[in-house]
Design a protein that fits this description.
The complex is a heterodimer. Chain A is α/β, with parallel strands linked by helices. Chain A has 11 helices and 10 strands. Chain A has 2 domains: 233 residues, P-loop containing nucleotide triphosphate hydrolases (Rossmann fold), CATH 3.40.50.300; 38 residues, no CATH class. The two termini of chain B are 35 Å apart. The relative contact order of chain B is 0.16. Classes of the chains: A alpha/beta, B mainly alpha. Chains A and B meet through helix 2, strand 6 and helix 3 of A and helix 7 and helix 9 of B.
């Protein structure tokens, strides 16, 4: 679905930001891009959406070279949720905001189709439609931005640090919505995130970056357990993974508190039987 | 465009001038440009602008500013030439008076705008504010307002660029080659830009206040800005430019 072939990119004022990047993302995957600030994660997702064009190599989205197609034309396929929702929101009510995005990307639906889609989206996100986006809380504004992106029904959803500045419940609300759509097979997700707990809870696969290069690619649990890789990328694994690693043998596949507790219980049960 | 107001460090004669001398020189060029009606003198003033840029060691930036201004100048030239009805027709509805007037307007625009941007390329904004407070006795509040406005311009441009990027990603055709279409699409973006600008201004005001903004006086800065010998030729140049403009 997404294919990067030896992609390099450099901003005019700086050196190479992304170098010789190659990976592909299959339909239905939930991929997280990990790495320290300046690792090239945001550049990579911008390359995927075509907001910036590679200086070397090529990026294919659904077989189409992003350098040869206009970004605005790809909005039907690729939705982009930015870290700052205020850059996206530009209308006075939530209803108008959702309709604005639909009119731009889904003109094919017609005015009646757009109206219906707006009402469906408002109901799904529990908005009345009359709320003023700029008077809402940061988390609510992020939900408005997400609602207007998802109303378009993109095949690919790119999230650039979607949970920054959100409290725990707002973060869960946003991520649960995205995760549900991903599980239902409606959307493939590529997410940049600094919150490793969120990555562990929601992503299936992690791509680790440092200095514009791809250092590691694999299932999230396995990636977090690779001490050397985490050190090279200056990433601290989630506490639960750290604890599981400290506990050692038998806890290799425990990625949640429940899984850790289950292993402990199994061992206790085993000891009781032996006794 | 984003680097337009960025300071370029250096130790040239222009860099070493007192910030107030640089402002006075800028004003002198502007006054001379508006006083004169002579095309050749206006061209000479443009030469002075370019010379200042070269002496300051920022020829690339000077040419960049000139290039940017020429785009606006070309549009203004065409407009002025087409709208002037006086004089003898030279080509289609364009008259000789129209061409002359358009040339003067465009040259005046370039001559006036160049030193205004160049002065920021060779002077730290903080030096500009401090010198205004110490030497001219401008209240710090106003000097701060001026320098903050200058600092905000590149930030607003960056913000606008990010907003346009976000809107393009949702399907708004900012990546079209039709400039008129693009212009029409900018209007809805004023809301997010305005909101972010007000938020940023508010944050800056709060940050300044908690750092004792109200306690600052003209003697608060540790750096002093005395006039030196090198300021003398610059002052003479200012006088010469205005006298010549009055005489020609």
């Amino acid at each position: 679905m997404i294919k990067l072939e030896n992609v390099s990119f450099a901003y005019a004022a700086a050196g190479p930001t992304v170098e010789n990047l190659s990976f592909h993302v299959e339909k239905g995957e939930f991929v997280a891009l990990l790495g320290a600030n300046g690792a090239g994660k945001t550049t990579t997702v911008k390359l995927i959406d075509g907001l910036i064009k590679p200086t070397k190599g090529r990026v294919l989205v659904n077989g189409e070279d992003t350098a040869k197609t206009r970004v605005s034309r790809r909005a039907r396929q690729v939705g982009f949720l930015f870290q700052n929702p205020d850059r996206q929101i530009c209308k006075n009510t939530v209803r108008e905001e959702i309709a604005f995005g639909l009119r731009a990307a889904r003109g094919d639906l017609g005015e009646d189709g757009i109206k219906n889609r707006v009402e469906e989206t408002l109901a799904a996100f529990h908005f009345t439609g009359e709320e003023e986006p700029f008077s809402l809380s940061r988390g609510q504004r992020q939900r408005v931005a997400l609602a207007s992106v998802l109303a378009v029904e993109p095949q690919i959803l790119i999230l650039d640090e979607p949970t920054t500045g959100l409290d725990y419940s707002e973060c869960c609300h946003i991520m649960d919505t995205i995760s549900r759509m991903n599980r239902d097979g409606q959307v493939t997700v590529v997410m940049v995130c600094h919150d490793m707990e969120v990555v562990l809870d929601y992503a299936q696969r992690a791509l680790v970056m440092a200095g514009g290069r791809l250092l590691g690619d694999g299932p999230v649990g396995k990636i977090f357990r690779d001490r050397e890789l985490m050190e090279r990328a200056s990433v601290l694994p989630p506490q639960i993974t750290g604890l599981a690693m400290r506990l050692g043998e038998g806890f290799e596949n425990a990625d949640t508190a429940e899984e850790l507790a289950a292993v402990v219980m199994r061992r206790r049960e085993g000891r009781r039987k032996q006794a | 465009m984003r680097n337009l107001f960025q300071y370029v460090p250096g130790n040239s004669l222009i860099h070493r001038l007192n910030p107030i001398t640089k402002i006075v020189l800028t004003i002198a060029i502007c006054v001379a440009a508006f006083m004169t009606d002579n095309l050749i003198y206006l061209a000479a003033l443009l030469g002075v602008d370019l010379a200042i840029g070269i002496i300051a060691g920022v020829p690339k930036k000077t040419l960049g500013i000139l290039k940017g201004l020429l785009k606006i100048a070309a549009f203004l030239f065409i407009l002025q030439a087409l709208l002037t009805r006086r004089g003898t027709p030279v080509f289609w509805i364009v008259t000789d008076t129209g061409l002359l007037l358009a040339g003067k307007v465009v040259l005046r625009l370039v001559v006036v705008c160049m030193p205004l941007t160049l002065v920021l390329a060779v002077t730290r904004v903080s030096d500009l504010a401090n010198a205004l407070v110490q030497v001219v006795h401008v209240p710090y509040k106003y000097a701060f307002t001026l320098t903050t406005a200058i600092r905000f311009v590149p930030q607003f441009l960056e913000e606008m660029n990010d907003i346009m990027e976000a809107q393009t990603a949702r399907g708004i055709e900012f990546d079209t080659r039709n400039s008129f279409k693009k212009l029409g699409m900018i209007l809805p973006l004023c809301a997010p830009l305005l909101i972010s600008s007000v938020r940023r201004s508010d944050q800056t005001a709060v940050a300044a206040e908690v750092r004792g903004f109200e306690l600052r006086t003209s003697s608060s800065g540790y750096k002093r800005y005395p006039f030196r010998l090198c300021d003398l030729p610059a002052a003479l140049l200012c006088a010469a430019l205005i006298v010549l403009a009055a005489l020609i």
